[in-house]
Amino acid sequence: MTDTNSSLGSSAAAWRIGTTGIALIAMLPVLAIVWLALFPSENIWPHLVSTVLPRYLSNTVILMVGVGISVFLIGVSTAYLVSTYVFPGQQYFAWLLILPLAVPAYVIAYLYTDLLEFAGPVQTMIRGLFGWELARDYWFPNVRSMGGAIILMGLVLYPYVYLMARASFLEQSPHLLDVSRLMGRSQFNTFLFVSLPIARPGIAIGIALALMETLNDFGTVDYFAIHTLTAGIFDVWLNMNNLGGAAQIAIVMLTFVLLLIGLEYIGRKRIGFYQSVGRFTRIEKIQLTGLAKWAAFMVCFVPVLAGFFIPVGMLINYGITYFEQSWTEQFREYALNSLSVSIIAAICCIVIAVFVSYAKRIEGNAWLGSASKLASMGYAVPGAVLAVGVIIPLAVFDNAVDGFFRAQFGVSTGLILSGTTFALILTYVIRFLAISIGSIESSFSKISTSIDMAARTLGHPPFRTLRRYHLPLIKSGIFTAALIVFVDCMKELPATLLLRPFNFETLATHVYLFAADEMIEQSALGALFIVLCGLIPVIVLSKTISSSQVLVRQPN
Amino acid sequence: MKILLFATLGTIVLMGFSQSDAANQVNVYSTRKPQLIQPMFDEFTATTGIDVNVVFAEKGMLEKLRSEGVNSSADLVFTADIGRLSDVKNAGLTQAVQSIALDSNIPASMRDNENHWFGLTSRARIIVVSRERINDGDVTTYEDLADPKFKGLICTRSGKHAYMVALTAAMITHHGIERAEQWLAGVKSNLARRPEGNDRAQVKAIKEGACDIAVINHYYIYKMLADPKQKPWADAVRVIFPNQNGRGTHMNISGMAMTKHAPNRDNALKLMEFLASEKAQQMYTQLNGEYAVKQGIPLTDSVKAWGDFKRDPVNLAEVASYRRAASKMADRVGYDD
Amino acid sequence: MPPILKVENIRCRYENQSAVDSTSFELEQGTLACLLGPSGCGKTTVLRAIAGFQKLIRGSITLNNTCISSPEGNIPPEQRNLSMVFQDGALFPHLTVEKNIAAGLHGNDKKKNQTIVGEMLSHVRLSGFNKRYPHELSGGQQQRVALARALAPKPRLLLMDEPFSSLDLALRESLGQEVRDLLKNIGATCILVTHDQQDAFTFSDQAGVMRDGKIEQWDTPYNLYHKPATRFVADFVGDGVFLDAAILDQNKIWSELAVLTGDLPDDARRGQRVQLLVRPDDIIHDDESKMTARIKKKTFRGESYLYTLVLPSGSEILSLVPSHHNHAIGEDLGIKLEIDHLVYFHDD
Fold first, then answer.
1. Which of A375, B1, B128, C197 qualifies as a cystine partner to A23, CB 3.0-4.6 A?
2. Which CATH superfamily is domain B3-122+253-297 in?
């Protein structure tokens, strides 16, 4: 991407100012939090360091390492299998494997607890078989534990890695693989030493996304009583009413994320390879036989079964059983609320991401590069903390405007922004901008920079170049990004709880309120709706993935 | 696509602005679960024609209120425990309310001495034990919970939850920091499992044999008895009102306060007075199994069946003042580890 | 005729390194020029500067008497009315051939655009390919479409960045010739950037050899080969060796092979020791000749052999010999020297 050094048009300033503005707005909550952390009203930091912080830290590290390993193993193995081999159901797994993305981590946590707890069907059956009566009579793994959290979060977060890894595997030039085979490497070693390293940037992005989700998660760790940094933020802020302390823990979390981003960045830089829109032949898939065929099937089937079909089956079951209590006028209103805020947030994310990525592409200076990184920082901030970071500056703004109007005209403007869905959408946009920027930048990076130069020398100014020649080429990237942002907004919980206006419930808050009260059955319909909304884009997603491949990389 | 976008944007802008215009309403920020207070609000709306808008903000209500400042549209704050109620007051976000109706319906011990907050219901923090595995009389006080003979038998929810914090704060009030901390560490070392779940989950754990003793709010038993799925859990435990031979059982309140900048002050006052009235207090008792603050409200049968008991008369405001110390204490003893 | 393009003393930085410095040249209307040099010499940077993708730190670029680039200001690439052809073709993969070619036609007259597209396609001998997509074309076809696209808007100047380097050798030469004929036909002015002297020879009227961001020599391809201005140019363009030599007087040079006669520059001083450039075609095979050299190595080139010969002194020279003169390694070969242009450089 460093190839286009500079454009010399008069519009250069507009791109620069726009991007800087976006980065500033996206940074504002973080700045508010840093400010709070530095100047807390009561400094609780010494107490935190001497008591709970080490535990928060170690739990967070264990959870992240665990989830990182599980999403890597599931995501990469399945992506490699479906993009390299032919085995039963392989063409269906290509999109089936994305499905768990539609299931929020907290929902799967509620459901598996329901399924595997003492009174659940599994343990009841075991007790029946062996004649046990009490929990102390036998040992059964506790779902509500660190191990449970790692497995369950891995099951719904691995599609991030799967999607990225699969795209990388499909884009790899088959010639590279052929060369490796000719040099005497086995199929597996070729995977290990050629395919995997080349796919590393994609996999790194996928893992980074999954781990940021992990850091953000509140629903699951809250339910499982695992004291991570996020849970710590909630505790210090909400139970101890010490926002400064929460901000201080948030800073600790931010360093985690900076590490993640830094690692990913270094990885990308070191590889530094550059894919042009070339004439790749499609990789010839290898037919698996015998045991291997079924082993591949199982590797792909288990994550889909456990991450999607079991939870969705349970939701459908509860949804039908409790339909009368669930399908209400209010429910439909919540659904509409969820849809509208999510769609708007997704559109905003895309527009901003295209703007920022394109500005970086045509201007290409160091500042714009860091500006797009800064604009992506929101993803690192847990939803709840981000909500505080958003509400503080918005309230300052609102009160300033209000004060001005009261003083000048004697009228009150009230809370223009902070009491409305604007605050909610702004938070969603800041939070999920990283997804859209990441996806769109990587789409842009696949377009040869000589395309830009060709368009410009043919008389098309930057904006028209973008509209005519880039947008059609990055269409699938835009689609992917929009859909992931949409689904994430539908699922978003902590920030929504804090920022929704009066009488404005989303499906997520609805599900949380009931599920946290151990009434998952009554809220199953809502959860099911979230999952189904997530499914529509997943289906479209798999279609665009395959059609864009036809467009860009047709066999000769 | 564009039309959809503009339509949705338009709707949202309208939603944003319309809410501040409607006059005949009262806005509530609540940390109590909406389903526990909604019936009373519905009744209020039916009687007065005033709409009640509720934001359930279990997390971060105080911060939301603080940052919204003068422009907050919240009129009333509802909480499920004394700690948060006094926090809101101490943060300077509430105002004093003078009302003869409130003063006469709510006893002085159940409201703020400066009339900032008012209790609406009270609840006992009770001990429940397995009917089968714990003998009558083995556990009679909160202090017993720290007795090493119960090692591995106790379940509670998180030591950082408001209800547990209030109990610890009460222990600090009675025994001082040092002894309270010994007690909390003792309870911690008796825990059968890492604290998880809500109060109902602890009763369930006793039923399932994961532990034998738990600490919960009394009305959960009432609610569970009414739920076909949870009734067997409640049936498995015996209810103990602790410290009957001493200071009495630890009580907490759910309550309300008017925000400092309440835009619908009159309606808010109407709602407050309504909730303290005979009608609403009866509903609280009947629907939630809580104890009314107003004198002379009959208990529901199953609650009445537990008999009269001695309540800890300690000043709730004093207990609330130890809330932060109690929370830090839970961190120090690693209660939730 | 005034020059259409004037590049005056320009300096550019690329990724914080000086990429181009003190570079100047001019082009007349209808000239096919070439920038030749090893990779990293700054030739592409010059091209990008002319196109408007590269800022100038110093100097100026003038097109048709209008200053288009200077440190003070620049006209954006899209307003320069010049076209560019890239190594990878840079065809828009989502558009058909005709839409690609029409991309630079901004008039609203669709019929006229259609006509131009048709003309361009016939120019590049791809008539009938209108509805194809880039991925359905071969590499050579893609480059021809890229050329058609670049020429369609009738640019004042055509810039080509290694357009033939991704093609195979045979295609490269034929397409180079073809493109030259076409451009000459329509009277286009063009700058081609390449690292391959053969491209420069087939294609250009004038060429500049670049090294470390500077133009070492700007001349006709013939002169670059036969009258290189610097030792680097002599080395880079064509084969050849340097033999020890000494200046005898104003028109005589002594070398191991012979005493040569020719016009020497004014600064040639008697007794000066120099290095004489000897091209393979300067050494003629002659069985009659008394002068012989031993064959050390030979490379078959089809129509000829390139022999590496060792002189009695141990110096090596190259000789291009028609391939029916097949001699074995180790044999002595009779040679004679026929140098038309005396090119020498001073010892460093």
1. A375
2. Periplasmic binding protein-like II (3.40.190.10)
